[in-house]
Design goal:
The complex is a heterodimer of chains A (220) and B (191). By secondary structure, chain A is an alpha+beta fold. Among the domains of chain A are: 73 residues, Cyclin A, domain 1; 80 residues, SH3 type barrels. Chain A contains 7 helices and 5 strands, in the order αααααββαβαββ. In chain A, strands 4-3-2-1-5 form a 5-stranded antiparallel sheet. Chain B folds into 2 domains: 32 residues, no CATH class; 145 residues, Nitrile Hydratase, Chain A. Helices cover 47% and strands 13% of the residues of chain B. In chain B, the strands form 2 sheets. A two-stranded parallel ribbon of chain B has the order 1-4. A two-stranded parallel ribbon of chain B has the order 2-3. Chain B is globular and about 55 Å long. The chains are: A alpha+beta (220), B alpha/beta (191).
Amino acid sequence: MPAIADLGGTDGWGPVHPPAPDEPVFPETWEGRAFALAVLGMGRISGRNLDAFRYALDRLDHHAYFEEGYFGRWLNAVELMLVESGIIAADAVDARAHTLEGTQVEEPPAPEPTKPDYAPTGPGSLREVDTPPRFGVGDRVRVGEVPPAPTKLPRYVSGRVGVVEVVQPGHLLPDTHALFQGENPQHVYTVRFDSRELYGADAEPFAVTVDLFDRYVEKA
Amino acid sequence: MTRPPVALRTAALEQLLTERGLVDPAVMDRFIATYETAVGPLNGAKVVARAWTDPAYRERLLADGTAAIAELGFSGPQGEHIVVVENTPTRHNVVVCTLCSCYPWPVLGLPPSWYKDPAYRARVVREPRKVLREMGLDLPADVQITVRDSSAEVRWLVLPERPAGTESLSEEDLVGLVTRDAMVGVAKVAP
């Protein structure tokens, strides 16, 4: 079962939507509120763990991910994080929404928080890595299989060979960080793939670069 | 089971967290206003116009985007490591995030709807020429396209080509020409 958020190269989406001039940042008021709640709310768990937030997005159902728009998806993901860490009860948001609508419903009591025992070792996502990078500019690497979620290895480059274009600064590893299980700093490589390597000899000629964590790639 | 409408659920969550002292609506107001007014593509346009008029700055920008952008006072969330790539008459870069909608907030603000659209996220890494045409950019066949998928914490910014015929314009005038879409790589800057 592919992760819902891993869309690269998938079919069936129809045409893109060309840019509209002067599109408001938040077309509806609630969208700005949802944005702020997501960013500030996730900071109430254990650090501001963006990887955990992305993993929450990735576990939403089709309706919660696609049908309520970008900021609806953000609201649903931060709600999931707050429920999982015992900050709000599972039905608390719906119950309060019914109350706001004027329907009398019993609201669940606030649960006991079960926040992950985890603190980031520094701000942001960049970290020093103790060992030198395994690969340098110009090296050919093959991308491994997509590991079990959470991960940031996009399916469309799995098994494909590319060339390291840039060795980027070290990052904490989303696969463990998203689970509050450690930072595991990794080197990150910008790897360039030829379109024909990804999609076959008939593909239109172009290149894609993907930023890949050290553990996702092996020598080709 | 159908849940209450998303706008109402947003209000509900805000109330719940406010009652618990976990968010402050006034802080939320300021946060929202920041992204509505202060942090947007005008920041990126200033970076581009500086690079077009100051060759030493352009060099620093392409060598270390984050530091050169910070020289103009722009930094913050989603801008930890910004890499700037230059578009030329023969080489064209276009940026996407196939896994979510990662975007260099300090220089471009929050992403526009088309960038967050599943169709753009799915298709631009598969058939970029066609997608760009649908977006209104028809590139000659000999232009080499590189799609930049922001799959880690690197944030990509495109330095667009300076349009011909703008030699007499000041840096300030040039700022007004630079568009968000050109800095993502789905448009060129028009003179």
